[in-house]
Amino acid sequence: MEFISDYGLFVLKAVTIVVAILVVIGGIVAIGSRNRRSNEGELNIRKINDDLEDHKEQLEDSVLTRDAIKAKEKEKKKEDKEKAKAEKKRLKGVKDAMATVDKTKRIYVLDFDGDIQASQVEHLRQEVTAVLTLATPDDEVVVRLESGGGMVHSYGLGASQLKRVRDRGIPLTVCIDKVAASGGYMMASIADRIVAAPFAIVGSIGVVAQLPNFHRLLKKHDVDYELFTAGKYKRTVTMFGENTEEAREKFQTDLEDTHVLFKNHVKQFRPRIDIEEVANGDIWYGQQALDKRLIDEVGTSDDYLMAACERADVYQVRYEFRKTLQEKLGVAVERGAEGAFTRLLTMLTRQQQNKG
């Protein structure tokens, strides 16, 4: 037993060292390629209806009997024949088929997974621009949004991108499966309709800022820090200098002003909300958020899109930058490190549970 215990500790140490090496390599590669990213990218379009149909057929092939499959195929051929006949009848009498107005409703699905800098806004702006070249008020845009918030100006730009859709009179739906808080909710509030999963986190209508101050540490070691500015409020609180009460008050005033802008933004697009009740920085889960009128429906994006496929052609639109070889290597190393670290934590957790 002692040998097994020692061997287990050796494995854990080895895994920790490997993870550390992979993280360092990934960081070096990412930094080296950061300034060489190509701005060229491409749109990837995928029809979700076809995906669902493929999944259904695969499941039927595995579950149904041979006779049942033959019956389904016969029924499908009959339906396809009737559809073709109906389409032929619709086009009958039309001299120029190219001039026929396309009445098919389309739903465009965009994904936004926000970090603290709302980095995916660069993708979102390209996707929205592409959709707006074709979408009409008879169509719909669905955004699957996940974000815990971040920088005000970055998420403000993200919200502005979604507002472009509303300004064109195109119905906009935001689906939240996990979290849309702070800047994430700033973006979500633009939507005509918000759908959130039962345990999705919604809200956090507030503003926060924090920073360490090393002034006393520097003073203890006789290190002077000098800051030169032109303009009384060019800098207020700092990390290294001595912060005055006046500087703190100005910084707090700036936060309060930003909070007012945030509240006015939400109130503009969701006027039925009691903004003073919900704009205290608190968060709510799905049903609670519905009661507070922060959302319009409790449900998952999966259910929403499955239902949408029955009434429209649903397309996922994703803009992707072309990655350099260094970036691809960096992503591979990063994923490997994350996987190894996750397995390490899982192993440690199980060991603790077994000891208990």
Question: Can you walk through the features of this model?
Answer:
The protein has 356 residues and is α/β, with parallel strands linked by helices. It folds into three domains: 1-38 and 324-356; 41-88 and 104-204 and 282-321, 2-enoyl-CoA Hydratase, Chain A, domain 1 (Alpha-Beta Complex), CATH 3.90.226.10; 206-267, no CATH class. Helices cover 53% and strands 15% of the residues. The protein has helices at residues 2-34, 48-63, 66-91, 121-132, 152-167, 183-188, 215-220, 245-269, 275-278, 286-291, 301-309, 325-355; strands spanning 41-47, 106-114, 140-147, 172-176, 179-181, 193-196, 201-203, 283-284, 297-298, 313-321. Strands 1-10-2-3-4-6-9 form a seven-stranded mixed beta sheet. It has a three-stranded mixed beta sheet with strand order 5-7-8. Helix 4 (121-132) links the parallel strand 2 (106-114) and strand 3 (140-147). Helix 4 (121-132) packs parallel to helix 5 (152-167). The chain is globular. Residues 94-101 have low confidence and may be disordered.
